[in-house]
Specification:
21% strand; alpha/beta; Uracil-DNA Glycosylase, subunit E; 163 residues; 6 helices
């Protein structure tokens, strides 16, 4: 059976310089009401490594690190039906208004997509020649079998857009 799920509110403020977009929260994230809550997802490990920050399990502190470094976080899908946590199981999706978020936050200089689903969706939404650069990064999901070192190397691109 497919369940209707909804994404979280964006984490963004007037100082945000980059936007990281996922697809839609997985089951563990929905349970905990936290972005990237699955312990095997490498998102937070990569973020702390890139930003030279001390890792923490405290979600409030994790969000504070993103905000401190002017990183916004959201998902391309507002709601959808999905069995389990796989992007391939997403059906009947409704998009988040990423264009409105970007227009309302003019300091954002680049968009980074955490995996292929968010990249394809944002390309459809914004078009290939959007005014900001849009980058595809390897998914931090444990299902994406690229090594942590390879993921980290690709994700370093983010630091080029942070002051």
């Amino acid at each position: 059976m497919q369940n209707r799920i909804s994404s979280f509110a964006p984490i963004v403020d007037e100082n945000s310089e980059i936007l990281i977009l996922g697809s839609v929260p997985g089951l563990r994230s929905l349970e905990k009401q936290q972005y990237y809550a699955h312990p095997q997802n490498k998102f937070w490990k990569i973020i702390f490594e890139l930003l030279n920050e001390e890792p923490t399990e405290d979600y409030t502190q994790r969000i504070a690190v993103l905000t401190k470094h002017h990183i916004a976080l959201w998902d391309v899908i507002d709601s959808c039906e999905r069995k389990g946590s796989l992007d391939s199981e997403i059906r009947n999706e409704e998009a988040n208004r990423v264009d409105e978020l970007l227009n309302g936050h003019p300091n954002i200089k680049a968009v980074f997509c955490n995996g292929g689903k968010s990249y394809k969706n944002v390309q459809k939404m914004l078009g290939k020649d959007y005014r900001l650069p849009v980058f595809l990064l390897p998914s931090t999901s444990p299902l994406h079998t690229v090594s942590l070192e390879q993921k980290l190397e690709s994700w370093k691109k983010i630091t080029e857009y942070l002051d």
